[in-house]
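cron nightly-structures :: item 1 of 1
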Amino acid sequence: MAVRHVEVAVIGGGVIGSSIAYHLARQGRAVLVIERAEVAASPAASWASAGGVRRQGRHAAEAALASEAIVRWHTLEAELEADVQYRHGGQLLLAESDAEADEVAEFVARQHALGFDDVRLVDRREALELAPGLNERVRAGSYSPADGQADPLRTTHAFVAAAERLGAEYWTGTACQALLRTGARVSGVATERGDVLAEQLVLAAGAWSDPLAASVGLLLPVQTRALQMVRSTPGAEVTLRPVLSALGRPLSLKQLPDGAYLLGGGWLGDPTPDGRGYTLRASSQRGNWATACELFPPVAARSIDRAWCGLEALSFDGIPFVGPAPDHAGLTLALGFTGHGFALAPAVGRAVTDQLAGRATPELDGLSPSRIAGFDSAAVAAFRAAPAHGDYLGE
């Protein structure tokens, strides 16, 4: 097989990899995207995502990207020339006790410190105006009006189509076998279609990034989890505008254009041993459904239509690794998004592209993979090997 030479190779065609490819192509750079399956196919995170477009609740290291992304989402459909079913109905984090109401007030103050000045504290009355039907225990909430939701499949494919219109090339159904070195530099990747040599290589393969990084001796501080989504039967009315979450509950709840409810919140399934699939847990489905019905009783008028999981790469410190790989010249990482990368995708694509072009990107400083050197190696090893306990993250 002939060796392919490209300017930039992106491994992974999900929403992050395809946003990077789109922004690279927009700069006129020759880019090849290599995707092991079809774009946004099961069980990839971009296929399974809940589609939340959330700014509030971000780590400080993500704040600049989150603010940029929120602005981009408002005009992204026009930019990509596609309907991604974007709705900015806001995001409402709820408190169900007086103690939690005090926590929410402190949470709002932290959002203001991050520059999210439009986030505001709401009392029970205003929370009910925003989301009629909340349970009787709700006391207060933090409301971020600029947040919202979009369709992850439509969004991923919109980035792909826009990238291809600008000249990006996609190899789908093509597994990457190992990264390639030339001296001290990562110079390409061995694939089922032959070797690809690249001036710059971006690893954005989500849960499938770890073995590729290991092929050049880079141990990623990540673990793979199967995160569950539950979709209800549809309904005639769409009455829930904001995305709902609650301090005391593992829950993300939104209503879709067909009236169905979409439930997430970190409930777990189990990855299959080969890393290519998952099995659902009946206990997670029951728990996710029950907590949604308790917070927002109108959900109980529906029933579970289907459930699925996506394989997510969770990072050691809960935030992604975005930037040059330490001690591996030529390799850039964009992975470990820990279940909340979808909303950031427009900004991550722009920032990584600028960084590859040698431009200053201070908004990526707190996400730099260079921080890996400061992690305790024994703690990282334990994290990587840890089994999933309980039915949801953090249980």
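cron nightly-structures :: done
The chain has a mean pLDDT of 97.
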